[in-house]
Amino acid sequence: MASEARTTSSTASAGNIIARQDRLQVWSLAPSFLVVIGVGFLFTFFDIFDINVSFIQTCAQIAAGCTPANASSFLGLPVLLNLVAYVAGALFLTPLADRFGRRDTLLITLLITGLGSLYTALSNDMTNFTIARAVTGIGIGADLAIVNTYINEVAPRNGRAKYTSLIFFMSALGAFLGIWVGLLLTTEATPFPLGLPFALASAAFTSGWRIMYFIGALLALIGIVLRFQLPESPRWLILRGRVDEADRVVKGMEERAARIQPLPEMLDELPTPTQEASVGYAEIFRNPLYLRRTLLLLVVWLFAYITVYTISAGLTVVLASLKYPVPEAGLITAMGTFGFLLCAVFAYTFGERLERKYWLPIGAVITLIGGIIIALGGTFSSPSAVPFVSFIGSIILFFGFNVWVPMTYAWSTENYPTRARTTGFGIVDGVGHVGAGVGLLVVAPLLEQMGPLLAMLLIAGFLVISAVIAQFGIATRGKRLDDVSP
Asked: Which residue ranges does the record assign to the Major facilitator superfamily (MFS) profile domain (predicted)?
């Protein structure tokens, strides 16, 4: 059976190459490439989450009049510009990946993100901090779209959500580190469970937040060096008429797959155009099919990101505004990252069991349960009272608002053809981040007037709306990309 992998580059057609790749049922690139891609995602999510706990210390150091009680009023502008830049990066850089290639653009996006993190670490006032967060947002917005596109174009068709979830584990690890390192470096030592007794922040050590962003810049540098090893996506190579190069990549994938299991029978060849003239935005906005899909996915992400970012970037500040002591609010948030890690493992194991869109209502219900438990757990004022109920609620909350994400990442890329796949994801994920701005700038300030229970119900309610809308989308699980999106 391994002999089926033999195809000479002089005779292989574009359709034959894609059919050979589509029949592969295991990860067929070097296993180390998953780590290579994952390191970039680890940094990306480290940078998204590191502001959650650390911002109170940052604000106190560089903004006159900032205190834990009013830090939420200073959070809005840097988060807003970070999100605006995220949208800009997604909209302006992702088309480059459809035109010039996935791998080379991945190097550019991570370089921009790393420079933004370095600039943040060196900021001495809110103006420069805000600009630095915007630079970082440009890189992150494009990087997420291109990584998800790349994974879905090289993963086996029966494992696109599975391997997206595996990379998402590195995202969860980055979020875990961003919050826990923030708790260690930017909060004062406080008896457990109201905080960390070995936390380092003090009157003599107020620069922990800077160290966090220096760590982010170092992680970005490591990711850039590693990404040079990645091959280009065979689907993109064919799109640009580089059939021989695509054949060599797929041949290597076949040889690696044949060492794991016998190669399956060949699939039918599908029409596979090369040298497409209509790519990126031109394809999406001229084609009614992809325009309809874009509008639906955009609304799904808009509502979902209200929930996601209110929790991921603002839960500590939200809890503080609800009268939770800052160390306790930070620790409750930090405990939630265990749920993030758990959901990534769960998604890798079970993500292919259901259609992508069914995971959204599951995540919404779990998010509601976690938020209600946190609200009922209340806050505590002495070390003798352990807020275990709130800890458990936070773990469930983080599991719920993240468990659907990798499957919906995969679903979003599957809705578009190779010639517009990165651009399409960039539109729905990038513009969808307007919802993140709504969550942090409109919803979050209202929460302190509601009380914990109503606040948590409101936060989760937006994900419920997103889940309902998603059910009108298409089914993609296990299908060939060119069947779903010709």
From this structure: 33-478
Among 84, 142, 113, 93, which residue's Cα sits nearest to residue 433? 84
pLDDT tens for the chain, 486 residues long, are 333 333 334 457 889 999 999 999 999 999 989 888 888 788 888 877 778 778 888 888 898 888 877 776 787 788 888 889 999 999 999 999 998 999 999 999 999 999 999 999 999 999 999 999 999 999 999 998 999 999 999 999 999 999 999 998 988 888 888 888 888 898 888 877 667 888 888 888 888 989 999 988 998 898 899 899 999 999 999 988 899 999 999 999 999 999 999 999 988 888 777 766 667 898 899 999 999 999 999 999 999 999 998 887 677 777 777 777 777 777 888 888 899 899 999 999 999 999 999 999 999 999 999 999 888 876 554 444 557 888 899 999 999 999 999 999 999 999 999 999 999 999 999 999 889 888 877 887 787 778 788 888 999 999 999 999 999 999 999 999 999 998
Q: Are residues 335 and 391 in contact, defined by beta-carbon separation less than 8 angstroms?
A: yes
Q: Which of 244, 249, 239 is nearest to 485 (CA)?
A: 239
HSE-CB at 313 with a 13 A cutoff on CA atoms is 28
Distance CA 251, CA 453 (A): 56
Nearest to 9, CA basis, from 239, 230, 236, 249: 249
Q: What is the DSSP letter of 200?
A: -
Burial 156-172 (b: 16+ CB within 10 A, else e): bbebbbbbbbbbbbbbb
Structural domains in the chain?
A: 29-260+279-481 (1.20.1250.20)
In three-state secondary structure terms, 485 is coil
How many other CB atoms sit within 10 Å of the CB of residue 243?
Answer: 20
